[in-house]
Amino acid sequence: MTTRVIAIGQPFAGDDGVAFAVLDALGPPPPGVELLRVRDASALIPLLEDADRVVVVDAMVGGAPGDVRLLDLDDLEASGMTDLSSHGLGVVAALRLARRLGANADLRFVAVSIEPPTTLGEHLSDEARAAVPMAARTIVDLLASPTRLRRPMGVVGAGVTGGATTQGADP
After folding, report:
1. How far, in Å, CA of 75 to CA of 151, rounded?
2. Per-residue pLDDT, 157
3. Helix/strand/coil for 29
4. 24, 34, 97, 142: most buried, per Cβ within 10 A?
């Protein structure tokens, strides 16, 4: 079984690099799990083609900064959250295209809510940095499932209404 955890972002665009920090927090992957980094959503398409399970982690604008959400593709599309793609395909469009092209991976999306970046640099805001352990824990929990990824739970970390919420959680 091929399982991939794919972080998407721009590490030199402030909080848009939070997904890479989440991947770093995971440490070495368990056997059979690949940890990958991409900077452009179109790179997701071939990575979904031959995978059985995929977890995509990305920074998204929407919700309170630092919230961590676990979503499936339909939930992501309906959430009103937006990615920070500056050109080309956005994350939702890339994932939908991969589906149309035959990718059938069991897919989940871990979104970390951020404010749109206003400066360049590798520094994360306090809210994004605080969300990293919760996002990493969410991914570890998903990977612990022996077969399919668990049903999305909505907000899994700090503070907005709706879904299962763990406020102030610190792994």
Report:
1. 11
2. 58
3. coil
4. 142
Residue 12 identity: F
Task: Go through 2-41 and write b for each residue having 16 or more CB atoms within 10 A of its CB, e for each that does not.
Answer: ebbbbbbbbbebbbbbbbbbbbebbeeeeeebebbbbeeb
- Nearest CA to 142 out of 70, 66, 39 is that of 70
**Residue 34 half-sphere exposure, CB side, CA atoms within 13 Å?**
15
Token pair for 69: 């959400």
Whether the per-residue pLDDT at 30 is higher than 80: the answer is yes
How long, in residues, is the chain? 171
- Top CATH class of 3-157 equals alpha beta
pLDDT of 48 higher than 70: yes
Q: What three-state secondary structure class fits 74?
A: helix
Predicted structure pTM score = 0.80
Looking at this protein, which amino acid is placed at residue 113?
S
How is residue 170 annotated by DSSP? -
Per-domain boundaries in the chain: 3-157
Calpha distance 136→19 (Å, rounded):
9
How many Å apart are CA 49 and CA 13, to the nearest integer? 29
Cα 110 from Cα 87, distance rounded (Å): 22
